[in-house]
Specification:
Four copies of one chain form a homotetramer. Chain A has 432 residues and is of the alpha/beta class. Chain A is built from 13 helices and 21 strands. The radius of gyration of chain A is 22 Å and the shape is globular. Chains in contact: A-B, A-C, B-D, C-D. At the A-B interface, helix 8 and helix 13 of A face helix 8 and helix 13 of B.
């Protein structure tokens, strides 16, 4: 199989983490899936992803002490493969995946790199007949989560990864977000120590016969390993966990600058979840996003013109009308077509300008990164140069539609001139 | 001006450094230019570049102690602009450039970032009327060359750069290799401290009205600054000085992996000079290259399929027939067309495989990085995936011409299979 | 208790590791103890230390794959306290300690920082009633040994350390070498992450009522933490594992330079085991030391004039006569008296010179670090300056006894002059 | 000469920098010397030190742009030796030194490591007949001051240092503070690049026949080089520039912890100038110290019990009575006797406790590092242990004089208990 055919555009969907932390259950998944099918599916949103600790009984029950309860007994089958916690997912994931598929959506799950620590200490025999203790690497742990040991780069290790992917494929899983694998900077001695596990996962997916999108987490991914990610995965996080904080959003502009030449069909550098709407409940502090409406537009515009996957971090059923309207601006997502390639025109502490183009089409966006409303311009010369670098062969428009407010913008004396609010943006689509 | 139009393909030419060190003179330049015009111009070689210390009287005269004589009095005009040493270049560079242009070639010079230290200490008034002492940054020096101080990021600093580029443009300079500017890792406090001087140079070139190719040196360039190089320069070194040593050549494969997504029209990550033929005379040890003929083919093939500029480091008039034949293999350079984009298929300690393609065309190369001859293969599936990633839309060939020996290679059972010598390579062009 | 009274001089003894690796047993301990009592006790050798994995059944049985067998079931009591492997130590450590005490010697054991991983995964209740899973820190592991988790800095954690030290004190343990605690550079985020466990161990010893010497391992200890080691421990390794290799021995000179001001009564920076005689059997390759006789003298002289503990790494019963004679040179150990303080006079790539002195006494040593025999000198002026810095108030001798060969050395024209063999040394004691 | 005899106690004096920056002149020096002779000499204050740029005409005249004017023409003799600026020091330093000696005080000057850049560019012939251009290392500059190039480690380089020290000795200089030499962390390639210049200076002083105290600056000095400083210098800065900021003062406690074992007669790790009284005039902002009276006592007490030199940074003639009273507390300086050695008993974020002792005497100090007044205690057991480590053999007192307020403090139930103000301290001297 060619992994670049698994997702022909950056995946758009929902992920349980930002709202539920470790406490998501089947009811919540169903409610969000139903909402997506009704309100967002028609414009491209399709993935429903269950994040961390679905295999952990009592997850979240000691939230004041631990995000991840150590030495907790995880739910596994006889071969040391993690299974969903029956208290939260009584029917298991197979039927749940089926329900989601029936809604016309796709089903994704989170996994941790490795094999359960408990399986090694209990010497569970894996599907290939090898003791889990021979598969686990006792010196390879996750710095922040106590569940797993890394898997050794051996035949038995590959067989273990094959066995879990086979199981997940049999459930109908369409998307795997593997955690603790993209920038395991735990050991100074081995900063990219999850490298062989990325390869093992990719091989297991290739063997399983199901086109499962592979998403790597957390970041920041190492730019020096770009070729390796592109060889084996579909998405990789270019940032630490992103939250609803302007400083993180502003910083994402240089992350996108760094990765802009690595966006292509099947290869999506990932800016992390969209922090819109309600979030934080599972963390003990339900709240509305701290991003202003202008910042939310900036986030959606940057993710889209750059080409990041789009994953909602909120509880969708609680979306207010204004936010839903933002999310239904399909023309913004049209920029994500990987046939077009992104390019930053300029960036400094106060502003950033981007285009995205292929031979026939283009978009442009102006971002005000400063603390005050300012007039921003885009001259035809700079624009033309950037467009040519991305292969655009057409003419440069003299009128544009501004995609967030629908207004028309006219070029005057070789320049677009616009007022852009603090932290806000304008996205321009040519009227040709 | 759009700097991406200054060199529509990676520059091919000759540079005086590897053979002459600091001792090149007008006679040597003329002899090499004449040779190029006669033997290499027809297939695309065109730049003649004079490297370091052309402004230094007595350069090379104390080679046992110093490569660059400190506190030497450099030749300057009244405005602190360096001029060629009259002992070596009695007519100056204007007439020399004219001669080279008359041969149908282009003329390039090396400069050091900055303003002569001596000009600051002598308080020379620059063309804009400002004292050199106000332009020079006394804490910005080159770690390995004593000639210059960095230029401050001020209006007067820009005016100084404008003044030198104006002078060089008036001479007919087509190409400037600026040294000590691409990875000035002297100060831990400021690892990319030449950044503003790159911008000043680019601005000065833009103002001067002449399309002067800007080449940045030394490397390794910082991948985090890729966007910045692409914004302002045409070439930037991705490596420390490259010499005729297999270990450096093998290492270049990962450097090319790192930079493969940054090659486009007007933007050429630079693998440094080709170490073929005779070299080293100015360093006191004239020698033939230490690279074997197979290694030389590997070098030329990698540079070309990746898209690096090609600059000969040898004394051309001493080229033997075999080497000249290598250099006249035009089909190899055909790969350099920036309309095509390179992609590494795989790389490990023993082998590397690359393709280069656009919508309609492609090339493939197999490199044996091991110490023994080995059979190497290329399967259609892997090839197809890589070609699609680079936008190839045509069919995959079942026969190829092997570009170094002209033989025909046939696909059998979905695979090309070939014996490749140790450190050698095969470059394949489809017979379609 | 004042830990500085637990060892009034640097401990001298034997450690099982260099010869037995993880395979030492009671018979081996007894044989070495008997040998020490008979041949070395009279001149100060007294500690018998059992090194790593005495609690691990089958230790060494999979030596081709693992030095430390992961997920092995360790021998523990009901409270998660490690006990000696009954197959190798059928009577346990209490009676063995008694035998060793009866020989007039002292008994030491090695421990790993932490609590057995298995105890946490099995949720064993510790002596204080708290579940081991609440005491273990799941993200604190040893990079090279799979047995333990670090202990959290909590009351229950302290109680666990108290419980093990209480048990070991009840057995009659006189010396504890705690491993993975002195320079746990596993996590870049926490380079000195064992710090609180050092404090907990020191407190536990203080409470137990028995003067147990605390030795920290491995190194290199951090010079920035010197005060902390001195506050809590008696010995700390200033080096990675030392082996019988001249390069490591030569390097020890700068380590001693670095730590020379931190030697005092009860505080002994530790140069690691003496690599003399036979070693390596447990590692699968029994061998005689690779150090030449001159290098062995250099090692003993440096350790002694600096003030390091002296621990034999060999199988003592296999000592040849020549080595035993070296070890019986009591006058060398006389230098270790912590009332005197060491001082390096000079060191370069070819030589090093040291003194050790108090108000009334002094010693001097000349070390030839070069590859050839050379004449070395010591002038009275330099000597006098160094002696004064260490508080010596007496006169400077004009005759010396050379401690390794017993010859007399005379000062001529204000200087001692001597021929010293390559890698060898001369140790001088004044004849006053 | 034995450099350890040049200053038998940590030097106490005045330095022009904190008040005058680069603008000090003869009148200011005289006024401060006169003040010291009258008000402070009797209790040990004796050095008058002229800090940076005494050789620079117009120093301070462009303070808004430059602290150190680049490419300024420095005052030199015919042999490239810097001389005092005649505008500020019309009689030169010889007569000024004489005046100061006549007051019973000592005379010190600041120098920059190296040889004037201008001397090299002008090819001045030095006293040994060698061109300054051959002595200067063009790649060795100071990161923050433009005056000098480093001196090469050659015979001619040594001769240059000999020549300047000879000149300064002839003037009657008693103290040299050499700058840019103690922690030249400019080049990652050579973090301790001034090392050979320290040795050259020490040699030059040894040859000159005058006991000139050598003080190294700036810091932080490298603890790994402690032995080297002790071998060649009398004082070395253990900190970056210290200013009147509580955070820097609090941080000094760990710096003192780090260096406490390196204080001995002739060897004084240096905490930098005392920031009391009026300061900052030359910087353009004359101000009173930002340290509260309690913080000032803490500073004086820490410097003294640790054993740092004491250099006043203020304009002495403007001292108010309260500050003068602080400075005249002679009993505090009695702690500085290098026969006693300092020892930290404990330190955490809230408090620090120190003793200083020899066989017969001791002092103790309690520092409140927290933001609130707190009760602090000192138990006899801890005190006893620390005193024994420093060799104290006498009895432990049951009554103390508190040196800052003269009150008597009594031991109760084995403990001293005291209330100490926020950022303040108590210093205890036994009543025996």
């Amino acid at each position: 199989m060619d992994k670049n055919t698994f997702a022909l555009r950056p995946p758009m969907g929902w992920n349980s983490y930002d709202y539920y932390d470790t406490t998501v259950d089947a009811a919540a998944v169903r409610a969000n899936a139903a909402y997506m099918a009704e309100h967002l599916k028609d414009i491209g949103w399709e993935y429903i992803v269950i994040d961390i600790e679905w295999f952990a009984p009592g997850a979240g029950s000691r939230r004041d002490e631990h995000q991840y309860i150590p030495f907790n007994s995880l739910v596994m089958d006889a071969y040391a493969r993690l299974l969903p916690d029956p208290a939260r997912f009584p029917e298991g994931f197979g039927p749940l995946a089926q329900e989601i598929h029936d809604l016309g959506l796709k089903f994704g799950i989170h996994i941790m790199r490795g094999i359960p620590r408990e399986a090694a200490h209990r010497h569970i025999r894996t599907l290939s007949g090898v003791d889990a203790a021979e598969i686990a690497d006792p010196s390879s742990i996750c710095r922040w989560n106590p569940d797993m040991y890394g898997v050794k780069n051996t035949e038995a290790g590959q067989a273990y990864y094959d066995s879990i992917i086979e199981l997940y494929a049999s459930w109908g899983v369409d998307f795997i977000k593997c955690d603790d694998i993209c920038n395991t900077n735990m050991y100074p001695h081995a900063p990219y120590s999850g490298k062989h596990e990325i390869e093992m996962l990719a091989k297991a997916i290739d063997k399983c016969g199901r086109p499962i999108v592979l998403s790597l987490s957390p970041g920041p991914a190492l730019i020096e390993q770009a070729w390796h990610y592109e060889k084996h995965a579909n998405m990789w996080r270019i940032t630490d966990d992103f939250w609803d904080d302007w400083r993180l959003l502003k910083e994402m502009f240089w992350r996108c600058e760094l990765w802009q030449d690595h966006v292509s069909c099947g290869n999506y550098p990932d800016c992390d979840m969209l922090t819109l709407g309600k979030m934080g409940k599972g963390f003990g502090h339900e709240r509305s996003t701290n991003l202003t409406p202008d910042e939310q537009k900036t986030m959606l515009s940057l993710w889209s013109i750059f080409g990041s996957p789009l994953m909602l971090g909120c509880e969708m059923t609680l979306l207010d009308d204004a936010t839903l309207r933002l999310l239904r601006n399909k023309e913004i997502y049209d920029m994500e077509d990987p046939a077009m390639r992104p390019k930053q025109i300029m960036r400094d502490d106060f502003a950033a300008k981007w285009i995205r183009a292929d031979e026939n089409r283009y978009y442009a966006a102006l971002f005000n990164l400063s603390e005050e409303e300012r007039e921003m311009g885009l001259c035809e010369t700079c624009l033309g140069k950037a467009l040519r670098e991305r292969g655009y062969k057409g003419k440069i428009a003299d009128r544009y539609t501004s995609l967030w407010d629908g207004s028309t913008v006219t070029v005057t004396e070789g320049k677009v001139k616009l007022r852009v609010p603090a932290h806000g943006c304008v996205v321009l689509k040519p009227v040709l």
